Amino acid sequence: MGIVIVGLGPGDGQLLTREAWALLSGANEIWVRTVRHPAVDDLPEAVTIQSFDHLYDSAESFELVYETIVNRVLEMGRTGDVIYAVPGHPFVGEVTVLGISAVALEEALELRIVSGLSFFEPMVTAVGLDGMDGVQIFDALEVAEQDYPQVSGDRPLILGQVYNRLMASELKLTLTAIYPDEHDVVLVHGAGNGDELIEEVKLYEIDHSESTSHLTSLYVPPLPEKSDMAALAEAIATLRGPDGCPWDQKQTPQSMRDGFLEEVCEVLDALDRDDVAGVEEELGDVLLHVVMQTQMAAEVGDFTLSDVISGIYAKVVRRHPHVWGNVEAADADEVVVNWEAIKAAEKRDTVPDTSAMANIQRSLPALARSQKIQKRAAKAGFDWDDIQGVYDKLQEEIAELQAAQTASEVQAELGDILFTAVNLAKWLDVDAEIALRESNLKFVRRFREVERLALEQGLQLKEQSEKVLLDLWFEAKASTAGQE
C-alpha cells in the first residue's frame, strides 16, 4: 500500500467521502496532522489515531513542523505502509502533502491520494458565490506576510486558515493597501459544519471576532469600482479595438508623446502644490499613457504590458541586492554607488557607447538634462577643484553676456550662464529643477499679492514707476513671508 494520504474534508464526519470512510474503516492505525479537526472525533472507533500535534508545541516555526512531518511520513512509507490524514483536500493548503508527494515521486515510492472536500465548496455555499466566477483563493498566512497583497481587488477573494485574532490583525493591515477600512467582508467560522457561523463585518473589524479559530475563513467581495491594472489594460484595448473610439484608434506612439510629457509635468505641478487629490488624478493620467503606449506596442508585436512589468520588476530586484541578495549597504549613499555599478555592468552588455555622456535622454527638460550631463562629467573627473572655480566661471559668463553684440551671441552666453548655474547647484547639493520650480511658485505667489495690493490701492501696474512697483513688491514679499 505504501503511503496513503487522505483528505478528511472541511468539517465533521458527515463530509467525509465514501472512499475515505471505507479506507479508514479498514485501517488499524492512521496518522493525522492534527486532532484539532471535527472529523477526527467521527472516525471509526476501532482505528488507532496518532498525531503530530506535539510538534507544534516544541518547534520554532511552522516550516520546521512541516519539515519534520514530511520526513517522518516518508520514513514510515519507506519501511512499510502508512495512512496520513489531513484536513480538507490533500492538495488545498497542505504544505506537508506537497513535500511528501515530491519526494515520493523522486524515490518512486508508492503513493495514493484519497481526495476530500476542501474548505472552498462550503465557503462559496456560505457566502452564495459562484466558485467559477473568477474567485481567488489564498492562504491567509501567505497574504499577511506580504508587504503589498498580491491579490486583485476586482475579483472575489477567499482566504483560508485565518486561525486566530492575531493572524486576522496582521491580515487586515496588509489588505488595507487595496481595500478601504470600511469594506464589507464576511468571516465564516466552521464552514460546512452544523455549528457554522457567518459574520458580516467591516474589514477593520475582522480581528474583533470572539469566534475566530483554526476553522475560520474570510471572504472579501470585489471593490465597487474597477481598480486593477488588468481592468485598465482591457479598457485601453477596447478603445483601440474595432468597436472602440475613433480618436484612440488613430493614435500612434509618436502622436502621444507631447501628451505624455504634459501629464508628467502636471504630476510635478500637483506635487509642488502639495495637492494630494491632484497627484492622485495626474498619476492616473500618466498611467493611462503608459498602458496606451504598451497597447500600441503589443498590437505590432513589439512588447506587452507583462513584458514591461516583468522587466521593471526584475530590474528593481537586480539593482537592490542589499534587499533581495547578500550585499550590504550601510546608508543611502552606498546604495547609490551599488546601483550605479550594477547599472554600468548592465549597459556594458547592451550598449557599445562607453562615453560618460551616453544614454542621457535628449527628451528630458533642458534643466534636468543639464544636471545629468554635469553629474556624469564630474564622476568622470571633469570638474572644478573647488566651488570658487564655479563662482568665477559664473562671473565670467555674465561679463560675456554683457559684452554680447548679436542675438545669437546673447542666446549662447545666456545658455552658458544657465549651464554654469546648474553646475553651481550641483556643488551646493541643490536640485536645480526643484529650486527653479520653487522660485517660480514664489514669484507667482508674490506677484498675485502685488496685483491684490495694486487693486486695493486703485493702481494700474502698467502706469506705475519702477519705484512704486518695487515698493509694492517689497510689501508683497513681507506679507507672503509666512507662506515661504
Describe this structure in words.
The N and C termini lie far apart (81 Å). The longest helix is centred in the C-terminal third of the chain and has 25 residues, at 432-456. α3 runs parallel beside α4 (95-107). The chain has 19 helices and 10 strands. The chain folds into 5 domains: 3-117, 3-Layer(aba) Sandwich (Cobalt-precorrin-4 Transmethylase, domain 1), CATH 3.40.1010; 121-220, Tetrapyrrole methylase, C-terminal domain (Methyltransferase, Cobalt-precorrin-4 Transmethylase, Domain 2), CATH 3.30.950; 229-318, Helix Hairpins (Orthogonal Bundle); 351-430, Helix Hairpins, CATH 1.10.287.1080; 433-483, no CATH class. The protein has helices spanning 18-25, 53-58, 62-79, 95-107, 120-127, 140-144, 165-175, 229-240, 246-250, 257-272, 276-299, 305-318, 321-324, 332-350, 366-379, 387-403, 407-427, 432-456, 466-479; strands spanning 3-7, 29-32, 48-51, 82-86, 111-114, 136-139, 157-160, 184-189, 197-202, 216-220. With 484 residues, it is an alpha/beta fold. The strands form 2 sheets. A 5-stranded parallel β-sheet has the order 3-2-4-1-5, sandwiched between helices. The protein has a 5-stranded mixed β-sheet with strand order 6-7-10-8-9.
